[in-house]
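Reopening closed ticket. The problem is back. First fold of the pair:
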Amino acid sequence: MSATEIIQGCIQNDPKYQRLLVVNYSAMLLTVSRRYTPINADAEDVLQDAFIKIFGAIRQFDSNRGKLETWMRKIVINTALKRLNKKCFTHEKTVDQFMEIQLLPSVYEHLQAEDVMALVNTLPDGYRQVFNLAVVEGYPHTEIAKMLGIEPATSRSNLSKAKKLLRKKLSNQEKQELWTRIS
């Protein structure tokens, strides 16, 4: 069944098509949600809230302006960010003390996608949000700043600090040779 048919069915509030939308896209959207809400139950709550918003706004989707997946991803990201912004935007001052850390290419050979995601999920909320929006989603700092209610310079600074903190965590993993699974 095509995305256009699913969208039309969802516009008509047909449960069959709503179920198809959830089945076809929930795994991908849950992965997006997990980037911003690392606790699995919270990520699932965000996804559920996002699907409610998606079904409520499906009439507004315009295939001439982009893909359905992109439109839904943005809704999931915004839902997750709104939930996280209810908490305060944290900054970790100790990151400023980190020096540039150079890692050997062999360090990266041991990492799997789950390992990288686990490391990113250990970042403080503000750093993780900016890292995911900039590196994973590809948003520019001006748009990240608008989404998070911060200055573009703060976005750039938090991205830099997030990268330094990740390098430090990778360096610690390398020193301890903890490559079987990062926890």
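Second fold of the pair, where the issue appears:
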Amino acid sequence: MSQNSAIEWTESTWNPVTGCTKISDGCFNCYAARMAHRLKAMGSAHYKNGFKLTVHRDSLALPLNWKKPQIIFVNSMSDLFHKDVPSAFIQDMFAVMKNAYWHKFQILTKRSERLLCMSKELTWADNILMGVTIENEKHLYRLAHLKKTGAKTKFLSLEPLIGPLPNLTLKGINWVIVGGESGPGARPIEKAWVDSINNKCFKNKVPFFFKQWGGINKKKAGRSLDGKTYSQKPEVLTVP
């Protein structure tokens, strides 16, 4: 577990699973893969396999020992619903999240098919936020899968946004995060795409969080949109 995460929309990370495999357009310049290889080179025990999917049962109970309430991004270095993560382990993680009721947990997946298949087998506690990543129109089907799950709070991570989303519908969605791709080979984001999503959020009263413009130097590009910083969050993350 890592406190003081650099990810703008969370506070901490918890990685009982590390490593993944690329499955869609948004994976092309995966930041987690770059970081995993760097951590392996530094001798980090949890990354001795690099970016090969690895389950860390010794990390399973960590949130129960962390007494200060935190907003926790689950598996920032993997995808919980990867086909190689045992279903029993996913269920164990959900049990931990339910029992660590003083925290808020944020889960993101690109593997919405498995998420939907497992939804009825999981305990959707109020402190678990479930989201899907959608990078362009081709992967909008993940939204339909998310809406059919039993998650109480549903959110979207439209990052890296590499194409417009004209058919995006936000009924049943509680939060939207938007961000451009960053790092080597970053693909450009267009302001018109961001404005369109922001307008839809405004019309549907959905909290809008603009994470970054991205690019090679994301700090220089910043996260201001028309001179304003958008850091809106759903009520579940703002109420003590």
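Update: turned out to be a display glitch only; the data is intact. Residues 195 and 225 are 9 Å apart (CA to CA). The first strand starts at residue 12 and ends at 14. Please close again.
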